[in-house]
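#random but structural
TW: two for the price of one
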Amino acid sequence: MMNEIVNMVAQKAGISPAIVNVILPIVTKILLQKSSPNQASGLLSMLPADITSVFSEKEKNEFTTTQQNYSTDEIIDKVDKEAGINDKTKSMNAVQEIMNMFQNTTGQKDLLGGFLGQATKKMDLNPFD
């Protein structure tokens, strides 16, 4: 299942599967940290075990007892730097595709506090600037 997820996200985001393998745990961790403890607990049970198994029991406990706040820019910057993409548009596309996959998998909408809409509004999509 994990390979299917990775390949689907890679194809839709226009990046290599190797980079998706790096990004997926980063985005999952941010999602769980940013969620309320109750929502994080539910997400841990709804997300595929292949994805959540990368986290230790200590991390899972932190997700279900604390909440952190990340801005859209911080999320994109973190993914861009940690995955070594160095292209904010590709990083944003990868995060969007992963969030779409999570929303489809869990049936939960508005994950990451409406990240998709915020990121798109902030991006300058005019290539003629």
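TW: number two ↓
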Amino acid sequence: MSRMSDRNPAISWRAIVYGVAIVYGTTFVSGLVFAFAGITPQTHHVAYPLLALYTSAVGVALALRVADTTRPSYLVAIGVGVWLLSSTSVLLGAQSVTGWVTSSAFIAATVILGRLLVGSSLDKVQTPAKSYSTLVQRATQTRRNA
């Protein structure tokens, strides 16, 4: 059991809170920028949701970079955290409860797209034992001897 905990250490609550703050902050700031630019759901029926999805996904990608992980448990924790934080719009009367519940699909799509934006760059890739220059030298020496 200790071996498994060494390989997959628990994600700290602090990292999750930072991730949620990054995603929510990025989404909030981009919403303000859209409003100042005159891009609203009423004026841009197609562009606004796509831009909102993309900028929120960039927030998820930034959160993944800061946390230096792409673990599914971290992605789920960020998604749930953003979803719970967005419940404040229900408390303020800006959104209905059913709208908030259905927003979970948008948040799930945002988290998935954010993970796809990061790609595989955070995955730990093992470097070969021998350098490429050594391999090239060996390859050229083999051709000369043949």
